[in-house]
């Protein structure tokens, strides 16, 4: 301290003031520089955190594919509900008629002897076919009924869980109908091929 004070006393007054001003400016410059560097580093860290959260969202309340259920969506579901319920009820009624018809036909044909009804085997097969159709139509009708019920609970404030059930029941309905349609087309093609080839085979063997 004594050496510094001596050196300062040896410097002219004007030069000493200039030197002190330069030192003060250098101190301020260093302070601003360090503050800028720290702000830049902090900003970069925050940007990296945001990027990481966007690339790898962890427990994010709003994932990238999330959306808000609008009033228009709810209105469409509200208008879909009665039609889905109506078709499901009509399906159950049709199933009831199929089962009743199948049961009555089987009872009627079973009481007839082979001598009174040569077409007894075909009648029993047709009755069993009605029962099988009733069983197949039961599932899409059930899925439609559950779909309409899910929509009702969703509109009453069921939330995301009821939305999942609604879409799941709709998916099950269309999946079953699609599989049933494919099976029907395949059986129809087999029937067409059989109707064409069997008479020709029988005619050829008759010769």
Please write out the topology:
Layout: H1 2-10, H2 13-55, H3 71-111, H4 120-158, H5 160-206
Helix pairs in contact: 3-4, 4-5
Task: Describe this protein's structure.
With 207 residues, this protein is mainly α. It has helices at 2-10, 13-55, 71-111, 120-158, 160-206. It has two domains: 2-54; 74-206, no CATH class. α3 packs antiparallel against α4 (120-158) and α4 packs antiparallel against α5 (160-206). The longest helix has 47 residues, at 160-206. Residues 1-12 and 47-60 have low confidence and may be disordered.
Concise description?
The chain is mostly helical and 207 residues long.
User: What fraction of residues sit in β-strands?
Assistant: under 5%
Estimate nothing, just give the exact number of structural domains. 2
Q: What is the tally of beta strands?
A: 0
Order of helices and strands: HHHHH
Low-confidence stretches: 1-12, 47-60
Largest sheet: none
Structural class: mainly alpha
Gyration radius, to the nearest Å? 42 Å
Our count of helices gives 5
- Tell me the overall shape: elongated
Mean pLDDT: 74
Separation of the first and last Cα atoms: 134 Å
What is the percent of helical residues?
A: over 70%
Keywords:
207 residues, mainly alpha, 5 helices, 86% helix, 0% strand, elongated, disordered N terminus
